[in-house]
Amino acid sequence: MILTNHFLIKKIEKLSKAGATRAHYYRSLEDVRYVLVVCEAKDWKAVAVCIDKLKKMGKTVHVCVYTQKQADTPIWDYAYLLVESGKDLNLWGFPHKSIKNQLNGLSVDLLIDLTSGNIPVMRYLVLQQPATFKVGAKRPSDFDMYDLSIVMKDDAYDVPFLFDQILIYLQAIRSK
Question: Residue 155: exposed, middle, or buried by beta-carbon count in 10 A (0-12, 13-18, 19+)?
Fold first, then answer.
């Protein structure tokens, strides 16, 4: 049970402001070897297709999945970190230190955020993760969190569309 997200949201605001000053390393899709995909269990069928595309390109994929109930959590064979709302968060909505340490311990070239944006703990984890290139959907009410933001039309959330747009833009980036 979470008492309030107030402190978590304040921390997210602070991290998003500090994120603007961090070093940004734009990479082409060819240069990326390790990818972290952040998603929600409810979107797993669509996300699994995206992960398969990345694996077919020869990328090593790590996954961080948010779920609200154990029953909603799919079983898959990918390297993943599960963030469960009732179990892995404290009373203030912050993730337990072990979750944060595991996620921040991943050395990745690219972080792709496919979450709907309505989950403060996942935004917090994305901002904490030390990936040098972060990509995700920009919503009108959101903070600037990413190095490459895809603006979703009419605030619609569509995982396959978002992922395909991310791939198009990553392929357009030239490394040299």
Answer: exposed
Give dist(CA 47, CA 65) in Å, integer: 10
108 dihedral zone (left: phi>0; alpha: psi -120 to 50; beta) = beta
Predicted TM-score (pTM) of the model is 0.90
- Specify whether the CB–CB gap between 169 and 22 falls below 8 A: no
Q: Which residues contact 95 (CB under 8 A, 6 or more apart)?
A: 83, 88, 89, 121, 124, 125
Q: What is the pLDDT of residues 104-162, one digit of tens each?
A: 999 999 999 999 878 899 999 999 999 989 999 987 667 778 888 888 776 677 899 99
